[in-house]
């Protein structure tokens, strides 16, 4: 079945194997004996396809496998190593099952004789017990079983047990044993090859080989073992993995909180500016003459215009109080905005103003006016204080409604230019003189287009988009702050990338022997890739679990805090789920990228040399 044709092997110009040719049968126990250092292990590694660097040819069932040694090894060869090479971070049963992880088929092997100690850790096992585990791991049914000094460190009783087990195995397949104990080999083996200085000096045939008995029950493998295997691998260095997970989680939490904060603050600053200067108004200024009636009438003719608010020259609105008589600043609530339109606002209670001396107040202003029940305000008489030229005049008004909105500065709403009419009625104002006004346009209209039209039609006036420069200025400042935040976030992510990369690399370097063993047991590129994918999913899963628990808690606490310090609750953090999805993807890609180095390292590992070292 197996044929070695003129095999030669050199280590640093030293000929270790010199022109070895052998023809091995389908079944039987073949012994290779010779003094230590004569090249037995080297020959065995070449037979098993784990040492690929040799000259000559290797034939399996008459066909050369020299160019597909990995596949040949995976499909047809099992090993019992001289140093056993059990994987310490796996349990006994997982060690025995390991070859099944890398093959599609499942073979049942009888392992009742280890039942008495199968719950122990590998490190607690005696040498004889470990030998039995290694033997069972190799019993995964393949055509060839190669054993490198399987009994070298055993007492006679255990040696005989193992030899008998191998003898039984040799009825179903080819078993090759390397040993320096000639008597033992002579007692059990069917053929003996004697080696010296890299050459075969003698070949003895004791028994004829029997025809092959085929094959044990094959079953389709059911379980998906990589998740379990990768979890064991990850936690074989518990402290290091824990540190990596905490480090990575901290970096992600910092990034998440920073980005959430910056997004929310930006949104809230924009909202604030929007509420101060809604982007649906245009201010008009006249340098020389007063804005005259005919211009106002013409403006009203445009369908885009919703309302025109004029600012009288030499005029100021001082606020509202409940008392008339003399103006007292301490008794008066300063009103920041009395020019905003109210047509699109929702009422909390009351009705819209129908007359000039009727006003609406916003909810927040109503709260500032009376602490108890704000509905008591309805129908109440208030004094609105105006200063015109040198006179300070209180004008009696009635609160007829409260709007639902919260305003950042105290606000009341009046009919269009109501105060001008009221001042006129009071005989304070005789002729209207105004050099400035605000044109509110319907929110659906295109402000820029209308602005250009106005500039074209009325070149004597100056038209400006209200709030445009403030918006622009704030946006560019926010942009700069965001860039700084992004730079710091990227640094946090970069440093955790190094951390993960380092830990992963250290893990794989320390476990290189284990990975070499897995390669001998049939693990290929796809198996390692799956292993790494599972490890990535596990790391990312644990990290994200920690991150989200802490993140949601922090957002909740922040919001509680903001609620307490800011009365009307304008400030609150909301969670951006697209950001969360981005973070999940980012962390997955990051860990996967870091895992590529170990993957390349695993694949480039020289199996034969790693196992010797
Ligand atoms: P055996 O198993 O018969 O005791 P080996 O096959 O392990 O012998 O080694 C055969 C010879 O090859 C020894 O002289 C050893 O020093 C040499 N050798 C084995 N592996 C290497 C290696 N990786 N680099 C250089 N020389 C090696
Ligand atoms: Mg050896």
Question: What can you see in these coordinates?
Answer:
The mean pLDDT is 87. The two termini are 31 Å apart. The chain has a six-stranded mixed beta sheet, sandwiched between helices. Strands 15, 16, 17, 18, 19 and 20 form a six-stranded mixed beta sheet that branches. A hairpin with a 2-residue loop joins strand 18 and strand 19. Helix content is 44%, strand content 22%. With 613 residues, the chain is of the alpha+beta class. It contains 17 helices and 22 strands. The structure holds adenosine-5'-diphosphate and magnesium ion. Magnesium ion binds next to helix 1.
Q: Report the end-to-end length measured between terminal Cα atoms.
A: 31 Å
Strand content: 15-25%
Helices, by number, come to 17
Strand order of the largest sheet: 6-8-9-3-10-11
What's the total count of β strands? 22
Strand and helix map with partners:
Blueprint: E1 2-11, E2 14-24, E3 28-33, H1 40-48, E4 55-60, E5 63-64, H2 69-76, E6 77-80, H3 92-101, E7 105-107, H4 127-138, E8 144-148, H5 156-169, E9 174-179, H6 182-188, E10 191-196, E11 199-205, E12 218-220, H7 226-234, H8 238-276, E13 281-285, H9 293-300, E14 305-312, E15 315-321, E16 347-350, E17 358-361, H10 363-369, E18 381-388, E19 391-403, E20 412-413, H11 418-425, E21 434-441, H12 447-457, E22 462-465, H13 468-510, H14 512-520, H15 525-565, H16 577-604, H17 607-612
Parallel strand pairs: 3-9, 3-10, 6-8, 8-9, 17-19
Antiparallel strand pairs: 1-2, 1-4, 4-5, 7-12, 10-11, 13-21, 13-22, 14-21, 15-18, 16-19, 17-20, 18-19
Bound molecules: adenosine-5'-diphosphate and magnesium ion (MG).
